[in-house]
Every structure is written in C-alpha cells, then in structure tokens.
Amino acid sequence: MSRVGLVTPYWNNITKEEFIEIARLAEDLGYDSIWVPEMWGRDSFSILGLLAAHTDRIKLATGIIPVYSRSPAIIAQTIATLDEISEGRMILGLGTSGPIVIEDWHGVPYEKPLQRTRESVEIIRMILNSERVNYEGEIFQLKNFRLQFKPLRKHIPTFIAAMGEKNIQLTGEVADGWIPFLVPPEYLDKGKKLLEEGISKTGKSSGQIEISPYIPAAVSQDEDLARDVIKEYIAYYVGGMGTFYHQAMIRYGFGEEADMIVDAWSKGDKSGSIESVTQEMVESLSICGKPAVGGPKLDEYIDNGADLPVILFPPKASRDLVRETMQALAPGN
Fold it and tell me: If the chain, 333 residues long, is cut into consecutive pieces of 10 residues, what is the mean pLDDT of each piece?
C-alpha cells in the first residue's frame, strides 16, 4: 500500500476539536503522516503537541517552518521535545519561505537563504546528536552548549521545501527528504536529478532521499466546486506570493498563463486572476475532480518518483470537501 500524507487545513476558524478530529480520522484512514503548516496564523509546534497527545501511530511533521523565524537551537530543542512527547513520531520540515513573509511579517532580512538553510540543518543535527556545539558559520557562531537532555532519537528526519535548482541540490546534500510544491508529476524526475547532484557530494545513495510533493487536492462529486477552490488557490500563489511561483510556472510551460495571473492580481482583479488559471494548469498541478480521478493522479505522482505524496487542502475548501477528499485519497482506496 502506498504511503500518503496530508496537511492540516488552513481554516482561520479551525478549532482545537477539529484539529484532533482530522488527525484521528487521518490515522484511522491509514495516512502515513500529518503535516502542520506555519504561515502567519497558529504556530506549527503547538498544534503538533496537541496532536501528539491525541494520536497513537501517525507520524507528525512541521510542514513547514521557516528557518528565519527561530534560531536553529530553538528548532532543535522544540523538535526534540516533541519527538519525546510523541514517542519518536516527528518529522522536521524546513523551508526558507519568501521575502514577503520573512521581511514583512517576521521583520528579518531575507538574506543568504541557502547558507542559512545549510547552517540550520548542520546545527540542528549536532544538537540532536548530543554534541557540544562549537560552530563557526557565516551566519551563526555558537560555542560550548549542549542540549540538557538526551533526545529520544539522534536523528529526526529532516525534509526541505525547495523550488530553485540550487536549493534542490542543497536538499540532496544535507536533508533526508525534498518537499516540492505546485509541481507537475513529470517535473519530479528533473528534481530528482538535481537532488542526485547534491547527493554526489556526500556518502549517501540516491534512495536515501524521500520525495514528498505537496499536492493541492479537492475531490468531490461536485466538480465545479472542486475546480473553483483549486483555481483560486493557484491564482493566490502565482499572483500574490512573490516571483518564485511565477518563475516556476514558466519552467513548467505555463508562462503565458502565469503572466496573465500576475497582471490581473497586480491590478486588484482577483476574479480575472482566477479565470486566468486554465484547466490544463488545474490538471497538471493538483488532484481535482470526482473521486475516481484521485487514485490515478496519486499513482501518476508515485510513478514519476514520489515516495510520499502529501495532499493539502486550499483554504476555501469546506469541512465537507476536506472530509470527502480525505476519504477518496486514503491509502488503499
């Protein structure tokens, strides 16, 4: 049976009880892992502590936290504590986010993202390994401290969300897994080649890096409803979240559509931006439609190299749509 993960919904008004209900349902349906995002709402670590206390088997992941919002030491302390609480079920998902979030929300200069990622992973690994941390980097200089307690595991799997070529190469070099986002299945093979360029600098083999694409998903008998929430989600990222996603769409062959999305969004024409998202983009970048499309689309990602596809729900996905999607895409269905 294939492994599938899912990201907790982004609803602004999600309750504690709903977090628990979704996690328990995911566990009952056989999902491998549940990933808790962190943007500018609830923090990931607090929710993971809640889920650790109310689940038994499912793996629990930060999905993702930016390396700019906390020091590597705080990240290591927190993930080690949660791993202890969850009895060894944690996965650490890291990313750089983007200048808009890091500078305008966190108030931190978005500088040297690759180097900051590298140094953060190296320091976190040293701390989890119970080493006395003496570290001289370009960004961080640490000396003479060691974690006060022995972590349950010396090595907690670390996944990196990466889009650019250099970042994907770095992921192959320093991480255990790669999280691509808004990526067509056929692009995974190119990403794997970039991972292998990074892996070649280490003693690891290519099979040691897991590929875990985040895949927007809306599966329903109401195809129009599913399509609408996916189109709005794609428009939001391509039009409103900086140049990374626009550039990615160009790489995937959607340059003309991406330009139209950005142009409309920049003029405040949200509906025009959404309408610029074509059906071809929806089919390429998401799992969308009636339940019968779900399994084959997941298989397409797996056939193209995904080890652990992770489904995520657009913020406008209703409670009913999320539940219907979870049921349709559950492992073994």
Answer: 91 96 98 96 97 98 97 98 98 94 95 98 98 98 97 97 94 96 94 93 79 97 95 94 87 94 95 96 96 92 96 96 96 79
- Encode 25-35: b = buried (16+ Cβ within 10 Å), e = exposed: bbbebbbbbbb
Domain boundary among 272, 287, 302: 287
User: Whole-model pTM?
Assistant: 0.95
155 plus 51 within the same structural domain: yes
SS3 186: helix
Q: Hunting for tokens 């709005």 — which residue is that?
A: 232
Same domain, 188 and 55: yes
Tell me the residue range of the domain where 53 lies: 5-221+288-329
Residues 190 and 214 in one domain: yes
Residues forming a β-bridge with 61:
35, 91
Instruction: Look up residue 264 and give its two tokens.
Output: 């409309």
Beta bridge partners of 310: 5, 214
CA pair distance 198, 195, nearest whole angstrom: 5
Taking Cα atoms as reference points, which of 278, 300, 289, 266 lies closest to residue 234? Answer: 278
CA triple 99-248-206, angle to 5 deg: 100
Q: How many domains does the chain have?
A: 2
